[in-house]
Amino acid sequence: MYDTRMPKEHAAIPIWACEDLYWEDFQIGQQLRTIRRTITEGECQTFNAMAGDMHPYGCDEIFAVDEGLFGRRLVAGAMIFSIGIGMVATNWWQAFSYGYDRLRFIKPVFIGDTIYTIRTNIHKEPKYEKRGLTKARYDIHKGEGEIVLSCEHIQTVLYRDPEAIKASGNSIA
């Protein structure tokens, strides 16, 4: 399907970081954890400049230390969301994003903090003729496990066997 324009011997080689899963394969309760990643000052300044987010909490050392609530510069929550989700992302070609719910910035992240993400599969339901919905919770942690961000990611995922889904009595739009 995806590799139609390459030599068959190349297309037969598994793709790195690609989940070859269908809706039926999504297991409620399954978890995975990413490797850790330290957030650098250069990354923060680049992200803030690209996003146009020049808030003094993240970009002004003097303000952050002398007047800020935390006494040091913060990493933008949008950056933590982007990196935390990105660390979990794979090339799951049977799925695409339907959106995010319940996004919460729970604790601050500072330049130099190290984060990792835990994904927990929490829900799935049949939805459309050829695709169902899945939902996973992403909890981003820093340091020794302190949770800093949580959200739920909804995806639409192809059925392996749409006729079996219909035959099981599940209502499909």
Radius of gyration: 20 Å
- What sequence of helices (H) and strands (E) makes up the elements? HEEHHHHEEEEH
Would you report the number of β strands? Answer: 6
- By CATH's scheme, which homologous superfamily applies? Hotdog Thioesterase
Classification by helices and strands: alpha+beta
Helix content: 10-25%
Q: What's the number of structural domains? A: 1
CATH architecture: Roll
Shape: elongated
How far apart are the termini?
A: 25 Å
**CATH structural fold name:** Thiol Ester Dehydrase, Chain A
Mean pLDDT: 93
**Beta-strand content estimate:** 25-35%
Low-confidence stretches: none
**Largest sheet geometry:** 6 strands, antiparallel
Tally of helical runs: 6
The CATH top-level class label: Alpha Beta
Question: How does this model look, in words?
Answer:
25% of the residues lie in helices and 31% in strands. The protein is α+β, with helices and mostly antiparallel strands and 173 residues long. It has one domain: Hotdog Thioesterase (Thiol Ester Dehydrase, Chain A), CATH 3.10.129. Strands 1, 2, 3, 4, 5 and 6 form a six-stranded antiparallel sheet that branches. A hairpin with a 3-residue loop joins strand 5 (131-142) and strand 6 (146-158). The chain is elongated.
List keywords for this structure.
173 residues, alpha+beta, Thiol Ester Dehydrase, Chain A, 6-stranded antiparallel beta sheet, 6 helices, 6 strands, 31% strand
Secondary structure elements and their pairing?
Layout: H1 8-11, E1 31-33, E2 37-38, H2 41-51, H3 56-59, H4 61-66, H5 77-88, E3 95-105, E4 114-126, E5 131-142, E6 146-158, H6 162-167
Antiparallel strand pairs: 1-4, 2-4, 3-6, 4-5, 5-6
